[in-house]
From TrEMBL:
The lineage of its organism: Bacteria, Bacillati, Actinomycetota, Actinomycetes, Kitasatosporales. InterPro entries: Methyltransf_11, SAM-dependent_MTases_sf. Residues 61-133 form the Methyltransferase type domain. It comes from Streptomyces peucetius. Transmembrane segments: none annotated. This is Class I SAM-dependent methyltransferase. Keywords: Methyltransferase, Transferase. GO terms for biological process: methylation. GO terms for molecular function: methyltransferase activity.
Length: 265
């Protein structure tokens, strides 16, 4: 066995002079597998922010589930409580997620989270929802949730940060995977990328509303579907003031907006 293992080691000695280098893990668009080395932002958020924190004993809360895209990723929890400004019927929630014993849905009338018992929540998730809530609303939610959280409970919340959003809009090419791949590759692959991906993508992008910078000094007046510039730093300061511990001010999984990771000590 020892000789076999020694031969195994020896078999590698003459290759990869200079050190194998596939791709830079710190570069979000560098890919070891070229075209086939990408995962979506949503899936990365699921893998980093949901999957490790959910098991059959977890009592999870989601703010603003909408139709339930993320809720479906949490149904393995012991129980999931969803709070939304819109009714489940309006959101088509049950049709999409399916009725389950461990799933509760509340159309909220205020920010008190009164349907949750004290010391009962292990995990909070909210994506693309608190960006539609004013800073006062976020403050009220997070204050209400503090006594509901168990010690050690984790939270992941995405909030709007217009400075981060505007930096994304101003640097769109930096985040464009097709440009990265075209710059790295030549010949047949390049042509395939242009034909199969770039041209259809450009047509789709042209047909969609263009990304526009947001006004940093926007008003605070309620309008349907609007965003509110809570700001990543301001929200982290709020969380710390309320007694939570911010573990990561931005998971950096969403190019547009911070996803804050925090917990109750
Ligand atoms: C853009 S949708 C996102 C839905 C879902 N989180 C997703 O990513 O697919 C925003 C959701 O937040 C909900 N929402 C807005 N204000 C809210 C509030 N104050 N409390 C709870 N939910 C709210 C909306 O009703 C809507 O379902």
């Amino acid at each position: 066995m020892a000789a076999k293992l020694a031969t195994e080691l020896e078999s590698f000695r003459s290759i990869w002079k200079g050190g194998f280098f596939g791709a830079d893990p710190l570069e979000p668009l560098d890919s070891l597998y070229g075209l086939w080395g990408y995962t979506s932002m949503q899936h990365a958020i699921y893998l980093a922010c949901i999957k490790p924190y959910i098991n059959s004993k977890t009592s999870a809360v989601e703010i603003g589930p909408g139709r339930g895209a993320w809720t479906r990723a949490m149904v393995g929890a012991g129980e999931v409580t969803c709070l939304d400004a819109l009714s489940a019927e309006h959101n088509g929630f049950w049709q999409y997620v399916g009725r389950r014993e461990n799933l509760r849905y509340f159309k909220v009338e205020d920010f008190s989270c009164s349907m949750l018992a004290d010391d009962s929540v292990d995990y909070l998730f909210s994506f693309d929802a608190l960006c539609h809530v004013s800073f006062d609303g976020i403050s009220a939610y997070m204050a209400s949730l503090f006594p509901k959280f168990r010690s050690g409970a984790h939270g992941f919340i995405m909030v709007a940060d217009y400075a981060k959003y505007n930096s994304f809009v101003e640097n769109l090419p930096r985040f464009d995977v097709t440009r990265t791949l075209l710059a790295k590759n030549s010949g047949q692959l390049k042509q395939r990328l242009v034909d199969v991906y770039l041209l259809p993508l450009q047509t789709r992008a042209r047909n969609r509303a263009p990304w526009r910078p947001l006004n940093l000094s926007e008003d605070d007046v309620a309008r349907p579907g609007r965003w509110y510039n809570a700001g990543g730093t301001r929200t982290c300061e709020l969380l710390e003031k309320l007694g939570y511990e911010v573990l990561d001010p931005d998971m950096e999984l969403d190019y547009r907006s911070p996803v804050i990771h925090f917990r109750k000590r």
